[in-house]
Design brief:
Length: about 90
């Protein structure tokens, strides 16, 4: 299996510096940290899709957690806040 990932320029520089110093531990740690997001996405992609019941249970759990975090006095967002104009007003 071949896995390809982009190493940001600043990390590539750190890897090269660590290699020049012969610091194997630092090189391994830098590469492991850089590879972690790719591994996570591969793991998520290999999971089977949720059944309708599993999805509903997960959505209900998320809604309950969100409601608990907002508290009893939270106000709903305005129609403008969730409109296209409201979402992109900073980008006009």
């Amino acid at each position: 299996m071949r896995i390809t990932f982009e190493l940001p320029a600043h990390l590539e520089e750190k890897v090269r510096e660590s290699m020049a110093r012969g610091d194997t531990v630092a090189v391994c740690q830098l590469l492991a940290d850089a590879l972690a997001p790719t591994v996570e996405s591969l793991m998520l992609a290999s999971q089977p899709p949720l059944s309708d019941e599993e999805f509903e249970a997960l959505a209900d759990q998320l809604a309950d957690e969100t409601a608990a975090d907002r508290g009893p006095n939270a106000k709903p967002l305005s129609d403008y806040a969730v409109s296209r104009e409201g979402l992109y007003e900073d980008h006009l």
